[in-house]
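Model it.
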Amino acid sequence: MGAVAGGPAAPCRGARIGISLYTAHRAGNERAMRHALPHARPGQVIGLLGGSFDPPHEGHLHISREALKRFALDRLWWLVSPGNPLKRQGPAPLVARMAAARAMVDHPRMAATDFEARAGTRYTAETLAALMAAYPGVRFVWLMGADNLAQFHHWQDWRSIIETVPVGVLARPGQRISARMSPAARIYGHARIAGRDARALGRADAPAWCFVNVPMMDISSTHLRARVAAQTGENVSGAERNADCTGRAASVKFGS
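Modeled.
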């Protein structure tokens, strides 16, 4: 989802950190990144926010904090995607986006991970299977925006996703109609949890999904990439918000 209407706001401290690290690492070396995987205990509820984070910014933090609170998550992980090999021009190198994402994460219950690159998965359904194998007993919740719910039925093995883990849908006020009219929402209407019961989502058995409205921030990855291009003269092209070949939004666009 795009940013709310209005002129672009001056970048906050978090956005400036993201921009500076993003530009520094785009021109940096390509050495492989080896970070320890996030820790999780059996029984914990972990929210998963997947995307390119190209670059990460305050909007990502905002929606992550909202998800932690609304869905009563124990932890929330940013799944920084390795990129789309079928796109002619993909996002910045993973090493750059991971460094920027780790610098942006400012919450003790949040973490950024390159799990998908480590596991070699391309599709969300594959990633979830790999995560559940790596973290037995952990309860995962997939997080998405209302725009992604509208096209969810186009994702690879989308039924497997919603029948494997609960799905939390976050959106700006006013986007309920398109989300409710989506094929996925109609097919799994019986599995919907009311917004007032959102905190129970993580403990629900799949299939289960919940739609909540959240306020959005006037900041976007697209805007920040344009700012980088203006500052450096480099044509910074990243994946756009439409669903990519991996069956998910190439960039996290929850007001971002």
